[in-house]
């Protein structure tokens, strides 16, 4: 009668899933809660806590009405608001009879318990939570939802289903409250058990709201894979969905323009297809007919249905896809289409055309998810028929616009695979998408060989590059070491009316000079080594030596051409910008023209422009190439006059010291960096130092190579903040180099520092590398004690 009075006094009607705080307050106002002095508990709780404490020798905790169990809480503290689930639960109290033995029995309904206390009781004995009040269950469940703890939520619901001893009425009340609000976190099989339990209760599942039914539908269609309980779940869901979706009709006339179906209709589309996958054809047809009658399947889609195939599933599925595209549910359409293609060995042209239409729709103002879906559909459609070239071009353009480099890389790699090239040649990216993909492949991709393929296509097919991106594209090509390709592109665009964007670009000039000066020096060095050898066929070797000498000279001439074109464009140099003169000086130092480089700095001094730290580093690089110790003295002098050397300054000196095999100077620079608290080296600088430290030399012994690798280990350990692990290529290079010189200790240390946490554990190459290290450790176990061996093998995941 008290609950009835709450409704009759105008407090309001309780709506499941809504905020019914007013009604809850009215209900609670009717409950007698005795006034208690501090730290005094109701008799029922005193007995329960004492029983638990005596059984497990627990200290007696205090229980507060909101907030759970603690050892030092005062009952006079303010209580927190009731949880939303508890508020919903009050609605279902009116449908069940509560025990009315004592007033304190009702007071128990408001006691809550912390999640930690609940789990501790459950761990000791699951039966300890069997007699907890309903508010405790609902409070712990609400906390599980709040912290998104799937396991805790599943445990609480299973306890309600299996061990709760408060009677069926209260159990069903809690489960109804749960299904009206917070069941998405639960395992699907547990939700099914809850529904089966409530189906047997009075009024069954009629209490479920449209929102709840929609949630159940999305849960069962989250995956198109058929699970063991799918058919049972669908049989239970089907009548509920049929009832709720029948309430919605798409308007006609002018209102149809702005209409968009509610979520329950989207869920119905997915359920219809799920019913088809489990062969519930009659149920699928019934729901489909409701969708047609309510115009949720648009009339124009119904008119395009082709029943000539006689395949019931295919007919319904294609209609669902076209209707999904009509309502802009592109992800659903792509999912169904992917499943259709995977399940159809030889799809006819109508299915291919439907997929092409879907890809075009996905590429119309796409999201990142749409781009991914397009990539999947392109690969699957190609198995049966070539995809139109216009789609491929539009895909690259959309990927560039959305900056989804991995998706574009995947499609480009697919279209350039030998199996695809045997049957069809798809176009490369065009416009701004072309240099964008090149930038991604050279900076963010592990499949750098694709960048060579793309650059080759640009050269061989004379593909146009956007004017503003030409210098960047050529620079990226040169940075990868593609000499022939970068030279061909430079020579193509270094003439004509727009040549200035190439010959006058400082970054491109530095890249080209650095690459081709290095190639020239390598050819000259190889020629010099051949002159010192005693070949068996002197005539053949002499001819080869002439070729190497001529190649070195030709490459040096090309370097001079690049440098001269840069100077000519920026003349008069006396008026050239500061950055241009600094770049010119740097290029001159790279090729050994120190006088010309210093002349460039002289222009700055004549204009009374103070050199900055970048200028100082450029000048320092010229000295360090020939005399790294003199460069180190310059660094000391810089600190004395108030300049602050940066990481580039120290990196320049250390790099050249390593080239001169002066490890003592390297260590001195490391200590000076630490004393000056200089910011750590960049990953690029660190990689350069490592390569310089382990660079091979002719007729080098394994002991010398081990010493170099030990030097590299010193560098890696000296700069842990550089995160060398983010460059797995360097880590693999160091590990393989250590294995080649038969040093398992170095190999393990490099793996532990560079690869253990940064490389996917189950990657095939990573697994093979770990086995190789472990094999060498066992082979050379005399170098270690047993504890070291066990530790290393355990870290490698091969301890057994």
How does the SSE layout of this entry go?
Layout: H1 2-8, H2 21-29, H3 43-56, E1 62-64, E2 68-70, H4 84-93, H5 103-107, H6 115-124, H7 134-146, H8 150-162, H9 168-179, H10 188-199, H11 210-220, H12 230-245, H13 263-277, H14 281-293, H15 299-303, H16 312-326, H17 330-343, H18 349-362, H19 368-382, H20 389-402, H21 405-415, H22 418-421, H23 433-443, H24 449-460, H25 470-479, H26 483-493, H27 500-503, H28 506-532, H29 538-570, H30 578-590, H31 594-606, H32 613-626, H33 628-640, H34 647-659, H35 663-676, H36 683-694, H37 702-718, H38 728-740, H39 744-754, H40 764-779, H41 786-795
Antiparallel strand pairs: 1-2
Helix pairs in contact: 2-4, 4-9, 7-8, 8-10, 9-10, 11-12, 11-13, 12-13, 12-14, 13-14, 13-16, 16-17, 16-18, 17-18, 17-19, 18-19, 19-20, 19-21, 20-23, 23-25, 24-26, 25-26, 25-28, 28-29, 28-30, 29-30, 30-31, 30-32, 32-33, 32-34, 33-34, 34-35, 34-36, 36-37, 37-39, 38-39, 39-40
């Amino acid at each position: 009668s008290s609950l009835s009075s709450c409704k009759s006094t105008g407090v309001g009607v309780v709506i499941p899933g809504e905020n019914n705080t007013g009604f809850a307050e009215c209900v609670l106002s009717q409950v007698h809660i005795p006034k208690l002095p501090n730290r005094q508990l109701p008799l029922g709780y005193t007995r329960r806590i004492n029983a638990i404490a005596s059984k497990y020798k627990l200290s007696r905790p205090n229980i507060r009405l909101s907030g759970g169990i603690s050892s030092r809480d005062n009952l006079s503290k303010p209580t927190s608001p009731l949880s939303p689930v508890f508020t919903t639960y009050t609605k279902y109290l009116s449908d069940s009879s509560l025990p009315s033995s004592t007033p304190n029995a009702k007071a128990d309904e408001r006691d809550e318990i912390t999640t930690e206390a609940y789990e501790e009781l459950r761990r000791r004995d699951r039966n300890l939570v069997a007699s907890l009040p309903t508010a405790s269950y609902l409070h712990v469940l609400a906390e599980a939802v709040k912290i998104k703890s799937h396991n805790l939520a599943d445990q609480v619901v299973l306890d309600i289903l299996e061990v709760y001893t408060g009677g069926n009425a209260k159990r069903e009340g809690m489960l109804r409250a749960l299904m009206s609000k917070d069941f998405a976190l639960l395992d699907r099989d547990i939700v099914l058990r809850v529904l089966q339990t409530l189906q047997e209760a009075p009024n069954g599942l009629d209490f479920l709201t449209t929102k709840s039914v929609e949630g159940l539908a999305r849960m069962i269609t989250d995956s198109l894979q058929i699970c063991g309980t799918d058919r049972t779940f669908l049989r239970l869901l089907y009548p509920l969905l049929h009832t709720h979706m029948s309430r919605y009709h798409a308007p006609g006339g002018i209102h149809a323009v702005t209409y968009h179906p509610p979520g329950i209709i989207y869920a119905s589309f997915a359920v219809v297809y799920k019913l088809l996958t489990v062969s519930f054809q009659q149920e699928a047809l019934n729901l489909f007919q409701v969708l047609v009658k309510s115009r949720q399947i648009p009339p124009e889609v119904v008119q395009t249905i082709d029943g000539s195939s006689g395949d019931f599933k295919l007919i319904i599925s294609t209609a669902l896809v076209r209707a999904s595209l009509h309502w802009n549910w592109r992800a659903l359409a792509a999912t169904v289409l992917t499943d259709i293609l995977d399940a159809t060995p030889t799809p006819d042209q109508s299915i291919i055309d439907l997929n092409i239409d879907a890809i075009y729709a996905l590429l119309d103002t796409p999201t990142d998810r749409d781009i991914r879906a397009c990539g999947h559909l392109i690969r699957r459609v190609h198995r049966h028929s070539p995809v139109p070239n216009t789609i491929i071009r539009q895909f690259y353009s959309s990927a560039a616009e959305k900056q989804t480099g991995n998706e574009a890389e995947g499609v480009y790699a697919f279209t350039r695979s030998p199996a695809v090239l045997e049957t069809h040649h798809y176009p490369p990216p065009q416009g701004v998408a072309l240099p964008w993909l090149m930038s991604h492949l050279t900076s963010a991709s592990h499949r750098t060989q694709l960048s060579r393929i793309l650059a080759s296509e640009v050269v061989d097919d004379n593909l146009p590059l956007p004017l503003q991106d030409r210098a960047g594209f050529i620079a990226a090509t040169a940075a990868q070491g593609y000499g022939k390709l970068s030279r061909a592109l430079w020579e193509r665009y270094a003439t004509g009316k727009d040549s200035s964007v190439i010959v006058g670009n400082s970054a491109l000039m530095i890249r080209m000079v650095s690459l081709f000066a290095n190639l020239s020096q390598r050819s000259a060095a190889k020629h010099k080594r051949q002159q010192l050898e005693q070949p068996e066929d002197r005539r053949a070797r002499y001819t080869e030596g002439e070729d190497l000498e001529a190649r070195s000279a030709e490459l040096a001439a090309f370097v001079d051409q690049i440098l001269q074109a840069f100077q000519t464009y920026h003349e008069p140099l006396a008026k050239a910008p500061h950055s241009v003169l600094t770049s010119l000086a740097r290029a001159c130092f790279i090729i050994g023209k120190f006088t010309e480089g210093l002349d460039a700095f002289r222009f700055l001094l004549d204009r009374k422009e103070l050199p900055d730290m970048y200028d100082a580093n450029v000048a320092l690089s010229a000295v360090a190439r020939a005399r790294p110790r003199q460069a180190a003295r310059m660094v000391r002098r810089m600190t004395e006059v108030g300049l602050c050397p940066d990481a580039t300054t120290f990196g320049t000196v250390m790099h050249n010291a390593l080239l001169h095999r002066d490890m003592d100077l390297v260590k001195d620079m490391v200590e000076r960096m630490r004393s000056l608290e200089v910011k750590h080296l960049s990953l690029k600088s660190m990689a350069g130092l490592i390569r310089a430290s382990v660079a091979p030399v002719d007729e080098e012994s394994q002991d010398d190579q081990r010493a170099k690798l030990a030097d590299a280990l010193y560098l890696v350990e000296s700069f842990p903040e550089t995160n060398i692990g983010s460059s797995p290529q360097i880590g693999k290079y160091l590990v393989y180099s250590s294995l080649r010189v038969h040093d398992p200790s170095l190999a393990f240390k490099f793996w532990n520092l560079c690869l253990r946490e940064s490389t996917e554990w189950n990657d095939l190459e990573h697994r093979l590398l770990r086995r190789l290290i472990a094999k060498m450790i066992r082979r050379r176990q005399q170098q270690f004690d047993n504890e070291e061996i066990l530790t290393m093998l355990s870290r490698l995941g091969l301890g057994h």
